[in-house]
Amino acid sequence: MTLNANEQMWSDLGIDLESHGQLMNALGPIYGEIYLSQENRPKGMGFYDFVVGDIHGIRVKELREHAKEGGKVVATYCVFVPEEFCWATGAIPISLCAGTQFSVPVAEEVLPRNTCALIKSSYGFKLGRLCPYVQVSHLIVGETTCDGKKKMFELMAEQHPVYVMEVPNKRGAAGRTLWQQEVRDFKAKIEELTGNEITAENLAGAIKKVNARRKEFKRLSALRAADPAPISGKDALLATQVSMYDDVDREVQMMQALNDELEERVRKGEGVAPKGAKRILISGSPMAIPNWKLHHIIESAGAVVVGEESCTGSRFFDELVPEGTENLEDMLTVLADRYLKTNCACFTPNTERLDDIIRMARDLKADGVIHYNLQFCHTYANEAVQVDRALAEAGIPLLRVETDYSDEDAGQLKTRIDAFLEML
Amino acid sequence: MITAGLDVGSRTIKLVLFENEVSHRAVIDSGLKPVERCRRLLDGRSFDKLVVTGYGRDLVAPELSGATISEISAQAAAVRYLYPDAGSVIDIGGQDSKVIRLNDKGGVLKFEMNDRCAAGTGKFLEIMARALELNIDEFAKTALEAERSVTLNSLCTVFAESEVVSLINKGEDAHAIALGLHQSVASRLTSMAKRVGVAERLVFAGGGAMNPCLVKLLESRLGLKMTVPEDPQITAALGAAIIAANGKHKE
Ligand code: SF4
Ligand code: SF4
Questions:
Q1: What does the DSSP 8-state code read for residue A101?
Q2: Which tens digits make up the pLDDT trace of A232-266?
Q3: Which of A13, A65, A94, B63 is the most buried (most CB within 10 A)?
Q4: What's the DSSP call for residue A33?
Q5: Are B192 and B114 in contact (CB under 8 A)?
Q6: pTM, whole model, 2 decimals?
Q7: Is A166 an 8 Å CB contact of chain B?
């Protein structure tokens, strides 16, 4: 069998070519059905279509070339991990995809079935040698945000270099001290990995870069408040998902162009759905690429998703790292504090998240909120009780759904979502 | 105007024709080709507008030039029509169970539905009845006659079925098993109802309401008297027909 250039690269990376081929063959038609069938898409999405069209090709090639020249690739799963250290030392941070059912069965050969799909999908990608991004990375950085992940990282460490950051359970003084130290330890780890020192100068540069991308995403978020919505929720989600593993400067550029175009649309009163279409805010567990299931059901029913209170949404870009600190120590402190403001359900209490949801629902003029939680994710499922109460008090309708990556519950989900939209 | 409401469920298809009141109703098995069955059901009937609800709505509606509405809105509309003072609805259908809270205008305020698993649905009871070699009416009757019950450990349909078989083999009384099974469904529905918060008047609709043992158990667990419509099986179809007359469906 002769391999094409991509296949050769995958094979060099130790990918299981046969299974991987099946995954790639499945993704194309799904993307076509979910994305390319949309009407009236912004032109700026062309870039993202191109990226997904060659999802394991061109970016992997870039990373490989970077690695060949001695550069490091650091893979992460969670928005708690400060990517700035990587950019500062010339390493490339990428967020790994963990959003497909495809890698779940192989993970279930080892992990208990009643584990959240995100954990199973992540582990399955490594175990099944299905993801070139995993393979190309020199280090996987995990965190202790939930017990399932914590234990999965121990198993993953049998297959790949893994480093785990400890995220505290509480945001008080003790938690803050712990986290400040964890961030410094992680800095040392990245310095050791890359052989480059983090200085006030290169860190300030990295902070600026990443902030620039956050700002573009905040701009996108504000534009989505317009009625009619200038961009579909699916497309906005995709841009977020892709930017989590793409080059930061390129993302800033692409997002700028996209936002300029959307601004123009808003000015002209153009949108992707008719004015007055039902507007939905999603809140809850992250939706790792290529998990587009919920957005697709909602938008196929005629509504539009206007925001994601999620790690593949506001938690990824809302908070900026304060710029203008001069010495390295202070910089590390404000950086660590910024990450501690991630309103993840792993914290107790986490009432800040309730405020976020209500604020976003109002800012984005959402008619209702759909709380999304991955089955077996206990922190989000239990926190949903409080979300329910807080939204009832604020007079914002809420639908809670619990699901995973498989399609077997698509019919029931659709019934619930149809009923929720009819009720708004 | 005559409107038609079709409820395409996993087990049965229900048709209601409506012209200020129910002018015709029919219930047939869904079979393997629901679209064909629906066609036959509508054959020779004249109506101005059709709204389809139920599990198969998206499959059937485009074929018959009908609009669609979710079962939840359909149940709410029917219950509101039948009992203008209704506050909530429990609906046990073939593969879904739902609890709906109505607002004071009869619209849906809140609802919950069982997740993908069959525990707490009509299907669960049907399979268990079969395991006891009873038809569904005998099954309810057997449970009602029980003097005591056994507690089933498993809510999962597959495991509960083997549990039932082993209980029978151990010589356990069929009445007690039947009651235990009904209690397991009632307890599942009760927690769902408590999460949504039911208010009077509580209407029990859908095919499950034809089961007197469930009515009794749910009433005692919820501490509320339930209203069971005369023909509970057709309420979703009735709701669809009413919505066809009033609008608010999806074309
Ligand atoms: S939900 Fe929490 S643990 Fe998961 S990615 Fe977000 S911050 Fe990390
Ligand atoms: S979704 Fe929940 S259970 Fe899954 S990895 Fe994130 S925090 Fe853990």
A1: G
A2: 999 999 999 999 999 999 999 999 999 999 999 99
A3: A94
A4: I
A5: yes
A6: 0.89
A7: no
